[in-house]
């Protein structure tokens, strides 16, 4: 008694502890320190599991249940960064209930032996580098409620047996190489609250059975190849708080009930094709993150948005119109790039904010210049007649004291000197909305976006000491990054982009799971979709340079790297993604000596013809040796690839109203890309064709050819049997249209005077000379005629369909004729023997020139007959 009275507080606690332990043991569940040893079968199972995972369990007398850690060794490293819990006991032994082996870079397979841990509830293998597939055996583990195999690099399909988990609440398969479609059995997992399928290669549509997952609070399906429309049942998951659908592959429309979910506080949808829709009605006023990017959304931004307590608002690359009426200070981050917002920007809106991005819009400049602030991005925010004056917020920057022919940037770093060229550093260490106008030089940079789910600002500039100087620093961006040049002399430029993957370092094996994917735009045109540095360079830490041609017409150049929601977002840590670039080098293309100066007389055109022929021959003789080196190696694949859906959307599903004509290779449609670029889409006859890769290569080479008198090929689309070419759009249709408008073709309002006819003729000659003699690959057109010459707004002639005759030939091998070309334009010896010489083109051009002169395409016309005789004489030489 006396002793009890003197018992101090500590001892009393001990006693209570002991007592309660005894009590709890009776019920089988112990909620704190384990006294029972791990069951020998479980210890054995752990050993097998470790082996399958590519590690060994370091034999120790320690009971992992006691220490809460497994001591695992992989290669030579003993690792302890894991946790194990054994919260179940039968009174004699305890059993493993939770196993977390995160960020350990284990390199084995997922262990089917896991089922031997009979009472396991949680398995977490986040960030390892495993191979093999999801074991279907696991499905028999009735206590399992948490599975994460996020970022482990596994492949294969989801076994349909996985619909049998009795009690699963959390399932993350994110950032793997999983493929196939989602089994409908997954709809049986009715207890699921979190389901993450992002960053895999899943296909097909989402099964209807998923409608049963009514307890979902978090659903992520970004970066997949799903098809079909966004299922309406998502709008019935009333507990949904977070929905992520960046580049999922699904199409719009998005059912309004989804936006109206009352608990939704994190909504991220991007890069989805679908019909136009107005800004949706959101119900939850406490929403934190709203990303509706590149969705073909139109209408205006409703004012209620400004009263919500948003932290992040990203409405970039839509077709939003109207004015901004706001003076509130939320959201913290606002990104409105790439819309058609107009009116003046309220002063209060500008002055109260950081992280405001209004670039690429149609605002009107108010009389006083907005104050220039580094976190307010006003690049190309304002409409203007001239691109230069639209660049910045104030017109004062538009007068160029001199014009430049190059610029070189070391992205994210300091000035470096490489072979007498200074790569100027871009040292801005800002984040959010960056506007860095390098006043001393002729280039600048903007960046927009916030690395969501990550609090540090360490993704904007990166460095890696081990790299060559130019690649030891780089700039990244969570949304897009634009480098622009201004006060540039107009003309052709070579744009070299330098990349090296320095973030996904190979030393940590799980980093190999990381995928970085982004799109490259130059002058607003998509030049490379889904660019992947690591793939292009064949590894990390390796430099890769990609070179593009660009034409500067209004003294400005715009290079934009855009994150279209693809690639992993949890390597090396959660919340890391987006484009990365090491350096940029832009220089004016050295002009090849201009070769054709033809004096055209009063009758002019016939003379023009003879002159060009003479010049062709002269040049051919001079450069015969050059032509033998048909070295294509230096030529980069410049093709932009478009998806079929993109083109379908651009042309309103190939609406006949958009049909421009029917060419020798298929129908041509007018279209408009989501960024506003007007294009012409040529749908090649969809015969099954072997070797699409070859086709893409061919197109790649052709699209590398740029000349003022060639129609620019933006890129192509190869999907299934669909082969489409995307060209720049020519306002004035084809030459035949202008010349022979009376002959059944639609009436043309064009009047071609003599000077214009001469200009057209010389233009064609220049284009041909380029194809034959000056370009990196020599091309004989083989089908020069009035319908293959297009006219732009200023009636400049541009040759189209170059390089296609060969494709056609391959396509038609089963048909008797090997000859591409059109009767009447064909040189006699070509028609007979199908010889592939430039002469054939020159001959056709001759016939065409006579047509241009006479305005007739009647084969019996006298002028033509005479002209052809003349040609035959000339071709004798
Ligand atoms: C196991 O018990 C510990 C100690 O009470 C507790 O912190 C942990 O959350 C439990 N783990 C599981 C998986 O129940
Ligand atoms: C691992 O151990 C082997 C042999 O014990 C040794 O040759 C190798 O260099 C070690 N590797 C590392 C990374 O320490
Ligand atoms: C241990 O894992 C945590 C994540 O679970 C990670 O943040 C940490 O960097 C890891 N530590 C080591 C030494 O790998
Ligand atoms: C299912 O999960 C609930 C809640 O986590 C738990 O109480 C129950 O015991 C679990 N059922 C089985 C069979 O493990
Ligand atoms: C859904 O959640 C509610 C409340 O959290 C719970 O009562 C119910 O059992 C859950 N449904 C299923 C199928 O797990
Ligand atoms: C969706 O994809 C699946 C599998 O790739 C395919 O079988 C199906 O035809 C596609 N459906 C549509 C509407 O494109
Ligand atoms: C915003 O504007 C409203 C009316 O337009 C006004 O009542 C309110 O005081 C303004 N708030 C701020 C912060 O300027
Ligand atoms: C903004 O655009 C809308 C239509 O998109 C138009 O009605 C309105 O007049 C424009 N406002 C200004 C200030 O230009
Ligand atoms: C908006 O700006 C873009 C780019 O400057 C321009 O092409 C477009 O015509 C403008 N639209 C309107 C409605 O002003
Ligand atoms: C890429 O690198 C691997 C080794 O890292 C090599 O085996 C392979 O041949 C390389 N591929 C190309 C196309 O260079």
Outline:
InterPro entries: Kinase-like_dom_sf (IPR011009), Leu-rich_rpt (IPR001611), LRR_dom_sf (IPR032675), LRR_Rcpt-Like_S/T_Kinase (IPR051824), Malectin_dom (IPR021720), Prot_kinase_dom (IPR000719), Protein_kinase_ATP_BS (IPR017441), Ser-Thr/Tyr_kinase_cat_dom (IPR001245). The chain is an alpha/beta fold.
> How many structurally independent domains?
4
The CATH architecture assignment of the largest domain turns out to be Alpha-Beta Horseshoe
Query: What is the CATH superfamily of the largest domain?
Result: Ribonuclease Inhibitor
Q: pLDDT below 50 for ≥5 consecutive residues: which ranges?
A: 1-31, 594-604, 624-639, 808-819
Looking at the structure, the CATH topology of the largest domain is Leucine-rich repeat, LRR (right-handed beta-alpha superhelix)
Features:
877 residues; alpha/beta; Jelly Rolls; 18 helices; 22% strand; elongated
Explained architecture:
The protein is of the alpha/beta class. The chain folds into four domains: 76-84 and 96-337, Ribonuclease Inhibitor (Leucine-rich repeat, LRR (right-handed beta-alpha superhelix)); 400-588, Jelly Rolls; 634-728, Phosphorylase Kinase, domain 1 (2-Layer Sandwich); 735-875, Transferase(Phosphotransferase) domain 1 (Transferase(Phosphotransferase), domain 1), CATH 1.10.510.10. It contains 18 helices and 48 strands. The strands form ten sheets. Strands 4-7-8-9-11-13-15-17-18-20-22-23-24-25 form a 14-stranded mixed sheet. It has a six-stranded mixed sheet with strand order 27-28-26-40-34-37. A six-stranded antiparallel sheet has the order 29-30-33-38-35-36. The structure holds 2-acetamido-2-deoxy-beta-D-glucopyranose (10 copies). One 2-acetamido-2-deoxy-beta-D-glucopyranose binds at residues 190-191, 215. It is an enzyme of class 2 (transferase). One of its GO terms (cellular component) is plasma membrane.
């Amino acid at each position: 008694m006396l002793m009890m009275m003197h018992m101090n507080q500590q001892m009393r606690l001990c006693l209570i502890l002991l007592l309660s332990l005894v009590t709890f043991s009776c019920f089988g569940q112990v909620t704190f320190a384990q006294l029972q040893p791990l069951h020998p079968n479980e210890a054995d199972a752990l050993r097998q599991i470790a082996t399958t995972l590519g590690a060994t369990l370091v034999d120790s007398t320690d009971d992992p249940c006691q220490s809460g850690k497994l001591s695992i060794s992989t290669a030579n490293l003993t690792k302890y960064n894991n946790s194990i819990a054994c919260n179940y006991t039968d009174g004699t032994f305890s059993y493993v209930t939770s196993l977390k082996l995160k960020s350990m870079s284990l390199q084995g397979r997922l262990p089917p032996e896991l089922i031997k841990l009979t009472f396991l509830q949680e398995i977490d293998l986040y960030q390892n580098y495993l191979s093999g597939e999801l074991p279907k055996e696991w499905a028999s583990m009735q206590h399992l409620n948490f599975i994460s195999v996020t970022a482990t690099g596994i492949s294969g399909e989801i076994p349909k047996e996985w619909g049998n988990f009795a009690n699963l609440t959390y399932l993350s398969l994110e950032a793997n190489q999983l493929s196939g479609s989602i089994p409908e059995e997954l709809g049986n997992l009715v207890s699921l609250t979190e389901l993450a399928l992002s960053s895999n290669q899943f296909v097909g549509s989402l099964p209807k059975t998923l409608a049963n997952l009514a307890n979902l609070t978090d659903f992520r399906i970004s970066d997949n190849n799903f098809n079909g429309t966004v299922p309406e049942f998502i709008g019935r998951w009333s507990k949904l708080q977070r929905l992520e659908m960046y580049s999922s592959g699904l199409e719009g429309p998005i059912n309004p009930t989804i936006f109206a979910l009352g608990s939704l506080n994190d909504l991220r949808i991007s890069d989805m094709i679908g019909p136009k829709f107005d800004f949706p009605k959101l119900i939850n006023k406490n929403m934190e993150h709203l990303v509706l990017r590149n969705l073909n959304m139109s209408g205006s931004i409703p004012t209620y948005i400004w009263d919500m307590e948003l932290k992040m608002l990203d409405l970039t690359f839509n077709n939003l119109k109207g004015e901004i009426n706001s003076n509130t200070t939320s959201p913290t981050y606002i990104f409105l790039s790439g819309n058609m917002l107009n009116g003046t920007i309220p002063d209060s809106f500008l002055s109260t904010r950081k992280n405001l991005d209004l670039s690429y819009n149609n605002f009107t400049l108010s009389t006083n210049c907005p104050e220039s602030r580094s976190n307010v991005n006003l690049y190309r925010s304002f409409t203007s007649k001239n691109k230069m004056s639209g660049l910045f917020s104030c017109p004062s920057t538009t007068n160029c004291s001199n014009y430049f022919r190059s610029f070189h940037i070391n992205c994210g770093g300091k000035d470096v000197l490489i072979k007498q060229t200074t790569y100027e550093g871009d040292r801005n260490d800002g984040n959010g909305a960056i506007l860095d106008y390098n006043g001393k030089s002729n280039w600048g940079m903007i960046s927009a976006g916030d690395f969501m789910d990550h609090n540090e600002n360490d993704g904007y500039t990166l460095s890696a000491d081990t790299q060559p100087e130019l690649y030891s620093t780089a700039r990244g961006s969570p949304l897009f990054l634009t480098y622009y040049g201004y006060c540039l002399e107009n003309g052709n430029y070579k744009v070299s982009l330098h990349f090296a993957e320095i973030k996904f370092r190979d030393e940590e094996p799980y980093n190999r799971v990381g995928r970085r994917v982004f799109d490259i735009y130059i002058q607003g045109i998509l030049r490379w979709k889904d660019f992947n540095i690591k793939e292009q360079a064949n590894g990390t830490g390796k430099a890769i340079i990609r070179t593009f041609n660009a034409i500067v017409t209004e003294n400005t150049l715009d290079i934009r790297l855009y994150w279209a929601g693809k690639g992993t977002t949890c390597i090396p840590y959660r919340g890391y993604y987006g484009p990365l670039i090491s350096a940029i080098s832009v220089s004016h293309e050295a002009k090849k000596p201009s070769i054709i100066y033809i004096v055209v007389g009063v009758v002019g055109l016939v003379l023009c013809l003879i002159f060009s022929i003479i010049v062709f021959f002269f040049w051919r003789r001079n450069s015969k040796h050059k032509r033998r080196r048909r070295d294509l190696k230096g030529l980069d694949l410049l093709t932009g690839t478009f998806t079929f859906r993109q083109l379908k959307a651009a042309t309103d599903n190939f609406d006949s109203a958009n049909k421009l004509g029917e060419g020798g290779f298929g129908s041509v449609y007018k279209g408009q890309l989501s960024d506003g670029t007007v294009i012409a889409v040529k749908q090649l006859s969809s015969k099954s064709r072997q070797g699409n890769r070859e086709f893409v290569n061919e197109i790649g080479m052709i699209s590398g050819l740029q000349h003022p008198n060639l129609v620019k090929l933006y890129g192509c689309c190869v999907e299934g049997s669909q082969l489409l070419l995307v060209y720049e759009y020519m306002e004035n249709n084809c030459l035949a249209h202008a010349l022979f408008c009376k002959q059944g073709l639609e009436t043309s309002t064009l009047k071609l005077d003599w000077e214009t006819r001469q200009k057209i003729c010389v233009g064609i000659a220049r284009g041909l000379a380029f194809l034959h003699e000056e370009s990196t690959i020599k091309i004989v057109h083989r089908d020069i005629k009035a319908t293959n010459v297009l006219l732009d707004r200023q009636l400049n002639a541009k040759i189209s369909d170059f390089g296609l005759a060969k494709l056609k030939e391959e396509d038609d091998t089963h048909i008797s004729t090997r000859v591409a070309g059109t009767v009447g334009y064909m040189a006699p010896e070509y028609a007979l023997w199908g010889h592939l010489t430039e002469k054939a083109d020159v001959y056709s051009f001759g016939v065409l020139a006579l047509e241009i002169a006479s305005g007739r395409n009647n084969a019996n016309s006298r002028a033509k007959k005479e002209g052809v005789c003349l040609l035959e004489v000339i071709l004798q030489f």
